[in-house]
Design a protein that fits this description.
The chain is 52% helix and 7% strand. It is globular, with a radius of gyration of 25 Å. It has 482 residues and is α/β, with parallel strands linked by helices. The protein has 19 helices and 8 strands. The relative contact order is 0.09. The protein has helices at residues 12-23, 35-43, 57-62, 78-87, 105-117, 130-136, 149-159, 178-207, 212-222, 230-240, 262-273, 278-290, 293-300, 314-347, 353-359, 371-380, 391-414, 419-431, 438-449; strands at 5-8, 28-31, 51-53, 69-72, 96-99, 121-128, 139-144, 174-175. The chain has an 8-stranded mixed sheet with strand order 3-2-1-4-5-6-7-8, with helices on both faces.
Length: 482
Amino acid sequence: MHADIGLIGLAVMGQNLVLNMADHKYTVAVFNRTVSKIDEFLAGPAKGKSIVGAHDVKGFVALLKLPRRVMLMVKAGDPVDELIAELLPYLDKGDIIIDGGNSHFPDTQRRYEDLRAKGILFMGAGISGGEEGARHGPSIMPGGNPDAWPHVKPIFQAIAAKSEDGAPCCDWVGEGGAGHYVKMVHNGIEYGDMQLISEAFDLLRKGARFTFAELAKAFSDWNKGPLDSYLIEITADIFTKMDTDGKPLLEKILDAAGQKGTGKWTGIDALDRGMPLTLIGEAVFARCLSALKEERVAASRFYTAPSYTTSMPKPQLSEAIASALYASKIISYAQGFMLMRKASEENKWKLNFGSIALMWRGGCIIRSKFLGKIKEAYDKTPNLASLLVDPFFVKEITRCESSWRKTVAEGAFMGVPLPCFSTALSFFDGYRSERLPANLLQAQRDYFGAHTYERVDKPRGQFFHTNWTGTGGSVSSSSYNV
């Protein structure tokens, strides 16, 4: 026994994490169900490094130091359960299993509870950053059994990305499924960021006839200010990529987006918790709409696009769209953190939101300068209800608000769909409103279903019913909220 940690699953992410660990002076044991992959890896990228392999699970486990640390980098779902079942006969109480894949957090919670009863310490670690991040420093969001964390912490914090002040983008998140929950919300925010950027591109390209050179310059300029982020950086680079015929490659890519489900999970969880995660929901639906390519092509023949042309000069329009993108991005993160706050309360996870913002500062897909301000907000007020009431973000939203409204209006006149820009603005207008028309909703519900209502002149929690027609009677339904 001499390996510090073992990893099962030698696809690109798994291989790169192993190489990253070896670079940081850890000895790593590897196993893969397709045995030829083990030999190819050991003879190729892993050659000469502190990496050892085994051709079966028993031999793999025998290579590990006590307590054994086994990391799984396999497809979410049944493959994780199958591997755990294979490992269990060779593990002892106190050994550790870490699921580093994109598992749904309820599965992680279930595995944590099942394995805790068997004396095995289970962790679910969300990992972001793609292939490059895995190799050179990802963002890691570990949760599960807290007794496992001290044994894994040195390895994970060594291989994780580092923020500007050198702090690792990896810290304990919470018990059970907390780590994979935070990764799920991260992925939902990623959906939102990508859709917002795509809407900005559509406005500039379709609405204002920006050339690809102008697009690349605009996004490069944006990346020097508050929008400084990995996704803005790579988008500027995408605009410069030409196909073999010398024309922009982006023009050749079919406008039908794929998805793996994590954004959908986030939206469903928000509905289950009664949280208004409108922007991420719209980002998911935008992908669904894009997939209806043939239907959209057919529908386009029935309608003529608006002939409206913006009067705003290109530099002014670019600046306005940048402000709208920034304000909408603030809304997306505010909603994401509101959802995590609700989940933390309901699951008693005690999530540290400043720490989560720090974990996202480097290595991950949504890494950006902006996250530093979120960390500052939660460091200052740990129980902050929403980023929208933090003084810094109040100032930033106020600064961007006029341009944000103009951008959404310009998009509507141009006929350019802006689902995420629009819903972000609507959420903001709703959140800042002291009074919403939900009083009419409650009156309607009481009228047709005797669902009762509360009154502004009575304490919260007292419910009333009106016999609106004079013939409906005075008996009310029970009051409840989903």
